[in-house]
């Protein structure tokens, strides 16, 4: 079986596409980029696309798209700089002789060596076994069903660090001899630990794997993948934790030639239930674009629309502009843009607080910005109840009477009243009470036995807007008089035939026969609500005097 297939040099045509008559050139280019390359046919064009996009009279885009099996991110940067050099040489009329290293130049004159048999690789194998023999916890940010994690469809959200934060980060890294990627890796461990309540976390990292001089400026796919496993102790000092992360990165980097497939095989040999080894990854990508003389250019990298990991962080540092960008690539089946925005805020807040207070312990670092603090501490803790207006007692009765007007509402010895009849008696008495100053929570005593007159009196007082005070005819006269004076009742409604106590206010007898002759061609205006006073009920006081308890409609 062939281990390496070399295609001899062959010319490749560069297609030109005219976009001068459309204002969606960038959108069309992104759509073209999202269309996956085919790796079935053995040809260069199946794994790469080179197009010249003519957009304006003074603007031309050179569009390139490569499958990952032949090109990595470093190669894209190298290719871009080579194109800039070629263009400048054309402008100056210089020779375009090929001088860049290729796979063929690396292989020419060398014998084939089994890399796995070298002593240095045996040390790397020992490193891999050391990291895989210990207990390994597969980490997933979201515990979703496996079927949701089988889709690689993804979205990208990009943010550019503000100049003040970017300057603070560079100053912190320079003063403490720490790399930018170590700072962000440590902050990501803390962020994940806070959001998931986990401490043992593995994050995938990518290394250029270009240790030999021959590979430094060679186009190809050399990147290696290895997880870095750390424990985020909340009591650890942040600066010490960052240095531990950096130390572990250097240790892993020395073994970046260790193939990822061997690492996975070793893991699954001891941990049979492992599925996806790396759920989250972070990549540092310095983009060193060369300065051009005689023309202006811009670079842009389009997102493919897929990611193998649940969540991938790309830290891009532009050496030409000094800008630092963060790309958040997330699987669409597992995350929403809102949740990713929240993760962005948490991560950057941790970074911002960490560079300001590097000697603080991890648990003291804030991850919530001021907006989220206000939302959690204020909006989430509003004590006012959002409830519909509470109904009134007589309002409930009126609605019931409208729904079931002919059903029995009140049964008593010798008769029965339907809801419609009871409502009619109530409205007649309420209309009669209104001119006597009953509205506005005025106190009205109701002296009656259990009878239709008692029910009509209570509902009429409420409908008129007042509050009733129930008075038991069995009470002594002194007790009844005390209750009427204590509540400052303005009116007393009494059932005919009962002994009425001396009362400074007006006393009215209520009987169904008297109300039958009354007419009620109108209804009283209802001013009461759920917070209005409904009644005052007196209990026997411990001092010998009754004590009144005020009850609102919504409390009854």
From TrEMBL:
Gene3D superfamilies: 3.40.50.980, Chloramphenicol acetyltransferase-like domain (3.30.559.10), Nonribosomal peptide synthetase, condensation domain (3.30.559.30). GO terms for biological process: amino acid activation for nonribosomal peptide biosynthetic process; lipid biosynthetic process; secondary metabolite biosynthetic process. It comes from the Bacteria. Pfam families: AMP-binding, Condensation. Residues 397-555 form the AMP-dependent synthetase/ligase domain. Residues 4-375 form the Condensation domain. One of its GO terms (cellular component) is cytosol. Signal peptide: none annotated. GO terms for molecular function: catalytic activity; phosphopantetheine binding. This is PpsA plipastatin synthetase.
């Amino acid at each position: 079986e062939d281990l390496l297939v070399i295609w001899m040099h062959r010319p490749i045509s560069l297609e030109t596409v005219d976009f001068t008559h459309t204002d969606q050139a960038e959108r069309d280019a992104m759509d073209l980029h999202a269309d996956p390359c085919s790796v079935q046919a053995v040809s260069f064009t199946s794994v790469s696309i080179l197009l010249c996009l003519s957009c304006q009279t003074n603007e031309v885009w050179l569009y390139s798209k490569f499958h990952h099996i032949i090109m990595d991110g470093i190669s894209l940067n190298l290719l871009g700089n080579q194109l800039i050099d070629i263009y400048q040489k054309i402008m100056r009329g210089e020779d375009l002789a090929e001088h860049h290293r290729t796979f063929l130049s690396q292989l020419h004159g060398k014998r084939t060596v089994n890399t796995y048999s070298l002593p240095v690789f045996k040390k790397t194998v020992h490193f891999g076994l050391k990291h895989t023999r210990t207990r390994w916890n597969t980490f997933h940010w979201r515990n979703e069903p496996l079927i949701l994690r089988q889709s690689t469809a993804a979205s990208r959200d990009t943010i550019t660090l503000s100049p003040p934060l970017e300057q603070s980060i560079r100053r912190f890294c320079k003063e403490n001899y720490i790399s930018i990627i170590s700072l962000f890796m440590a902050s990501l461990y803390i962020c994940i630990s806070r959001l998931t309540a986990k401490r043992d976390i593995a994050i995938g990292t990518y290394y250029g794997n270009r240790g030999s001089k021959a590979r430094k400026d060679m186009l190809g796919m050399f990147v290696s993948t290895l997880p870095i496993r750390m424990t985020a102790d909340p009591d650890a000092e942040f600066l010490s934790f960052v240095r531990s992360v950096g130390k572990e990165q250097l240790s892993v980097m020395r073994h970046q030639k260790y193939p990822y497939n061997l690492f996975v095989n070793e893991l699954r040999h001891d941990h049979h239930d492992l599925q996806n080894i790396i759920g989250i990854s972070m990549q540092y990508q310095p983009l060193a674009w060369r300065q051009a003389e005689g023309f202006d250019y811009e670079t842009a990298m389009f997102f493919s629309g897929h990611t193998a990991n649940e969540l991938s962080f790309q830290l891009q540092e532009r050496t030409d502009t000094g800008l630092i960008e963060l790309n958040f690539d997330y699987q669409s089946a597992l995350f929403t843009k809102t949740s990713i925005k929240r993760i962005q805020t948490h991560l950057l807040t941790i970074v911002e607080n960490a560079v300001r207070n590097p000697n603080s312990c991890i648990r003291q670092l804030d991850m919530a910005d001021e907006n989220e603090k206000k939302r959690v501490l204020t909006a989430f803790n509003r004590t006012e109840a959002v409830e519909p207006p509470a109904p009134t007692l007589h309002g409930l009765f009126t609605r019931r009477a409208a729904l079931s007007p002919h059903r029995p509402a009140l049964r008593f010895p010798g008769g029965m009243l339907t809801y419609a009849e009871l409502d009619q008696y109530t409205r007649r008495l309420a209309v009669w009470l209104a001119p006597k100053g009953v509205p506005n929570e005025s106190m009205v005593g109701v002296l009656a036995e259990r009878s239709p007159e008692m029910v009509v009196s209570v509902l009429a007082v409420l409908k008129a807007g007042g509050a009733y005070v129930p008075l038991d005819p069995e009470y002594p006269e002194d007790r009844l008089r005390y209750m009427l004076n204590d509540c400052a009742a303005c009116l007393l409604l009494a059932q005919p035939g009962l002994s009425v106590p001396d009362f400074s206010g007006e006393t009215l007898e209520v009987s169904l026969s008297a109300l039958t002759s009354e007419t009620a061609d109108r209804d009283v205006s209802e001013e009461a609500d759920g917070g209005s006073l409904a009644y005052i009920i007196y209990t026997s006081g411990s001092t010998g005097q009754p004590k009144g308890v005020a009850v609102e409609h919504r409390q009854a």
